[in-house]
Design brief:
Elements lengths: L18 H14 L7 H5 L5 H12 L10 H14 L3 H6 L6 H18 L29 H8 L70 H4 L2 H5 L2
This protein binds a DNA duplex through helix 3 and helix 6.
Length: 238
DNA sequence: AAAACGTCCAACCGCGCAACC
DNA sequence: CGGTTGCGCGGTTGGACGTTT
């Protein structure tokens, strides 16, 4: 079983990229733009697999990358986002301009994990380590007849925390919709009070978001991220 | 001085998903 | 509608570099 390899391994370079390879890749993408990674290596005259080119470009060569140390502010943002999103590095990276998923993942594993542990916080659950393992409850808003797709959507909609591995569930309402012209009258999905927890304040009865003007378009000011979340793609795409 | 150990991070690997045929 | 292809993601690895013994 399995699939065919993504490229002809026998004739591709592996390991660290040389300056010349970098230059070729940059020149090619400048001239032709990103896309069709599979055919790019050949077209650019690189003996690399397309995936390798993509990775190199996204994680290292892209001109909009912010290299250098993470600020304290970025640290805290990453921690917040991780507590909500779990190991969704690409989503987290989407909220940190100039940072890549790989960079954040590495930084998390090398610095932030340790930082949280030193604060007595479990980096996986974001709960105090001394706290006894709690029975976590997954609140499901998925109707019995929901499709798999809908179920997936709900996974990022509600819940408290997850599961066997104590990975925090995604309790986000991510919507793809044009700006709503009318006040929302319908209860949020499936009648559950999904909209009752404020992610910005972590309070149930917070009024800053849910009841405020920001909810008029049917979305949350998730961690004060309103601007970015109005378009789901902008949250997901780097 | 050098061996052992620890840290960091670029790159690779395998898988899931969606688009395409 | 099922198989194939390509992309993107998260997890893992390996080697360079720094620190300690």
């Amino acid at each position: 079983m399995g699939r065919s390899p993504c490229c002809e391994k026998a004739h591709t370079n592996k390991g660290a990229w040389t300056k010349e390879e970098d230059d070729r890749l940059i020149a090619y993408i400048r001239a032709h733009g990103e896309g069709c990674w599979r055919s790019l290596p050949k077209a650019a005259g690189l003996l690399r697999c397309g995936k390798s080119c993509r990775l190199r470009w996204i994680n290292y060569l892209r001109p909009d990358l912010k290299r250098g140390n993470f600020s304290e502010e970025e640290d805290e943002l990453i921690i917040k986002f991780h507590s909500l999103l779990g190991n969704k590095w690409s989503l987290i990276a989407g909220r940190l301009p100039g940072r890549t998923d790989n960079e954040i993942k590495n930084y998390w594993n090398t610095h932030i994990r340790r930082k949280l542990l030193s604060r007595g916080i479990d980096p996986t659950t974001h709960r105090p380590i001394s706290e006894p393992a709690q029975e976590t409850t997954t609140i499901s808003f998925v109707a019995a007849n929901t499709t798999k797709e809908e179920e997936e959507e709900h996974k990022i909609t509600a819940g408290i925390s997850n599961t066997e591995e104590n990975i925090p569930d995604l309790n986000l309402e991510l919507r793809i919709s044009p700006p709503c012209q009318q006040p929302q009258t319908e209860p949020l999905k499936t009648g559950g009070r999904i909209g009752s927890v404020c992610f910005a304040c972590s309070e149930n009865q917070c009024s800053c978001v849910i009841n405020g003007s920001s909810s008029s378009n049917g979305g949350y000011d998730f961690l004060r991220l309103k601007a970015g979340v109005s378009d789901y793609r902008s949250l997901e795409m780097k």
